[in-house]
Sequence to fold (124 residues):
Amino acid sequence: MFIIAKEFHFSASHVLQGLKEGHPCGRLHGHNYVVIVTLFAPDLDKNGFVVDYNEFKPFKDYIDDKVDHRHLNDLWPFQPSAEKMAEYFYNKVQEEIPVLKQYIHSVTVKETPKTAATYEPYNQ
Fold:
């Protein structure tokens, strides 16, 4: 099995609703996010790749154009926790980048260098 990963970076703000009074994530705050998209394949293509890293460009463009320097609560109809964003980005790749769809393994979202949330479908 071959596994590759590519990182994407963006900065954004959010507020997490429904937390206990005084919880720091219940206030407006921001993060320098890292999104890691991981792909896997049993074999390599004729060039020796799982996929060419250039195939990630549509996802990079989405992050740069639609997510970077935004208020995440305004973008999506869900609570913008790292866990929900990992699931959302996984589905975004699956639905909108056909060449990556068959290889996607997981997506990890890091809010800080010490915290990470990963979405990986249970049935893999």
User: Anything to note?
Assistant: The mean pLDDT is 95. The chain has three helices and five strands. Helices lie at 57-67, 82-96, 98-101. The radius of gyration is 15 Å.
